UniProtKB/TrEMBL annotation:
Family (UniProt): Belongs to the LysR transcriptional regulatory family.
Pfam families xref list: HTH_1 (PF00126), LysR_substrate (PF03466)
Organism: Acidithiobacillus ferrianus
Transmembrane regions listed in the UniProt entry: none
Protein name (Swiss-Prot/TrEMBL): LysR family transcriptional regulator
Length: 299
């Protein structure tokens, strides 16, 4: 059967009428009417009736909608796969990452990779807060913070751990807790806390640590980005949590860092979403080999 017949019925149902669906599909109304007629003949009974405001599906038409939706998903994934296969020789690398990963984990790796492969064109989109805003098919690799889920990822992608890191607690200079030899999670409860945005992997990981210790932290100040947390803590607004990598590169922050809870601190995992090897361009393959080798050397 022609897939366009079912997809036309779906478009008409979702648009509420043939004329509206024609605009969505960039086809004429007679073309859509003819497709619906052919589909009705295949099924053997009417699929819709006209109403004053558009159309209304019959029980037979309604029964086809879930199948049509599944078919649309399959067609979209097929088109995406074809596009990616056409890009196999492309010297372009498209990466999406959260603010923390884009700022403190990827830049040095991307610079070194581009020195080795100067003809590769790199596109990096950082600072992602809501992954629903990302057009997944337009990008190759996705770098995620621990505790985040990436919805809408194609079935031929896999999400795997990429790197372990530590989250440290930072205090403004002269904070009274800095006089203690060992600071416990319970000690933080009496002071304002600077929180990252709700979708932050750092925040989710720290909140889980509090809850694991049966503590409900104060919802004091909520800001976006690791740089804003450092500035707020430095100004004396409260206690914050940042990745150890950020602290390494932000030596200008006038803050004190402690590993809480002692002695292991809070560990978290960064993840990478990548296509299966058969769908990886040569550029993606080279980049993955490069970062795996460089990360192995670093350890």
């Amino acid at each position: 059967m022609d897939t366009e017949l079912l997809l036309t019925l779906l478009a008409v149902a979702e648009s509420g009428g043939i004329s509206a669906a024609a605009r969505v599909l960039y086809r004429s109304q007679p073309t859509l009417t003819e497709r619906l007629h052919r589909l009705s003949q295949l099924v053997g009974e009417p699929l819709y009736i006209r109403t004053g405001r558009g159309i209304e599906l019959t029980p037979a038409g309604t029964a086809l909608i879930s199948t049509a939706q599944h078919m649309r998903d399959v067609v979209n994934e097929f088109n995406d796969l074809v596009l990616r296969r056409q890009r196999l020789q492309s010297g372009v690398l498209r990466i999406v990452a959260t603010n923390t990963v884009a700022s403190y984990f990827l830049p040095q790796r991307l610079v070194a990779f581009q020195r080795k492969y100067p003809d590769v064109e790199i596109h990096l989109r950082g600072g992602v807060i809501d992954w629903r805003d990302i057009p997944i098919p337009d990008w190759d690799l996705f770098f995620l913070e621990g505790g985040l889920d990436l919805e809408g990822l194609p079935s031929y992608y896999s999400v795997t751990p990429w790197m372990q890191d530590e989250i440290v607690t930072i205090f403004p200079a002269g904070h009274p807790l800095l006089d203690k030899a060992v600071i416990h999670m319970e000690d933080l409860m009496s002071y304002p806390i600077i929180w990252r945005e709700r979708m932050s992997g750092i925040r989710r990981t720290v909140e889980h640590e509090f809850y694991k210790n049966h503590l409900t932290p104060r919802q004091s100040i909520e800001i976006t980005g690791v740089e804003a947390v450092g500035a707020a803590v430095e100004a004396g607004l409260g206690i914050g949590f940042v990745t150890a990598a950020a602290l390494k590169y932000r030596k200008e922050w006038r803050v004190a860092a402690r590993r809480i809870p002692s002695p292991d601190g809070i560990q978290w995992t960064l993840y990478m979403a990548r296509p299966q090897p058969i769908y990886q361009s040569r550029t993606i393959q080279e980049f993955l080999r490069y970062i795996e080798a460089s990360d192995a050397d670093a350890t």
